[in-house]
Amino acid sequence: MRSYGQYCSIARALDVVGDRWTLLIVRELLLRGPCRFTDLRNGLPGIAPNLLSTRLKELEAAGLITREDAPPPVATVLYELSETGRAVEPVLKALGLWGMRFMAEERPDDTFQARWLAYASEWFTVDADPDAPPAVIQLVAAGEAAVVELRGGQVHTRLGRAADPDIVLDGPPRAVLGLLGGLVDLDRAVELGLSVTGRVDLLRRLRPVAPN
Amino acid sequence: MRSYGQYCSIARALDVVGDRWTLLIVRELLLRGPCRFTDLRNGLPGIAPNLLSTRLKELEAAGLITREDAPPPVATVLYELSETGRAVEPVLKALGLWGMRFMAEERPDDTFQARWLAYASEWFTVDADPDAPPAVIQLVAAGEAAVVELRGGQVHTRLGRAADPDIVLDGPPRAVLGLLGGLVDLDRAVELGLSVTGRVDLLRRLRPVAPN
């Protein structure tokens, strides 16, 4: 890690998390919780293993992650965010909210993961009708699935499939995420390949966080 | 700009602002408004001119800045943030708030500028007593000066000196910023070299933004 050598809290933050891949590694650790090197590598398509290894050492030295030996017979190392590392979440949210504007275009060689679908709904949408009864939205994009639960004004998400969802949104990532992020309306999402089954009225309840 | 090739809004944001120096260039443009290449270079100690030039071209291509010829006889180019560029501000705030934890230590070769003093007070403190009468705090650190005005619950700052401040805080950057950021208390700030003249009670009114 090279330092900018500026007595400025933004520069200091970038001294620690400004190198290439670092913030995406923190993203993966936030979404996954304690995990193995292999899990991280799978969640970061395109990263060279030796670079991941270097970054993990830097993050440990800066106090953002801890590494712990998993109990036998697993015999593997688990990486986990420290409190300082978890405190990076608002930075990722601010970046992601700003980056939504670039999500209308999906590039042919973009990789995509269900985990990102899940954080997008939890971080970038709100429940516009907190007094309404709980509801379950099933998201499926590029064959990957996440469940969005609306309950008491909160938006919670998890990976996988719900037993009895109120609505299912299934389609290419940019149709599903474009709709969630307010980049496209329902008609346009359907044009992009979205299939909607169930209570369409729930889409009004899941509202994109206002752009800043 | 190399792309991470991930259909994730955080990765997309980092495709645009994740390269070395880019976010600090946006910081300078936010703090200065329209400015010349020379101004930017002065505000970014350590940057190589050819790298600054490359980054400005990338930022223009990505739609974050515009460049305009200043009217004659000035004959210079002015760089200015676009709406998309200004929308990066919450990212810088989140980074700076997180980075405050690394500000207790001031390194011997750190550079420092009055502009950073000004944004630190405006971004990272709140007026805890909105109903109190307006008050003016003069900050001086490393010989550079900024004025903090508390008025109607708002914290406004500007560079320079006030005619009749209610309190003057003067000392090394880590004493002034440490106190503003809640990293050190008044006693410790005085130990670090802070000199305080005037209404010390106003320090209770200027409250650090809660860490996230």
Write structural notes for this entry.
With 212 residues, chain A is α+β, with helices and mostly antiparallel strands. The first copy, chain A, folds into two domains: 79 residues, Winged helix-like DNA-binding domain superfamily/Winged helix DNA-binding domain (Arc Repressor Mutant, subunit A), CATH 1.10.10; 101 residues, Nonspecific Lipid-transfer Protein, Chain A (2-Layer Sandwich), CATH 3.30.1050. Helices cover 40% and strands 22% of the residues of chain A. The first copy, chain A, contains ten helices and nine strands. The first copy, chain A, has a five-stranded mixed β-sheet with strand order 6-5-4-7-8, covered by helices on one side. The two termini of chain A are 31 Å apart. The model of chain A has no long low-confidence stretch (mean pLDDT 93). Chains A, B: GO terms for molecular function: DNA binding.
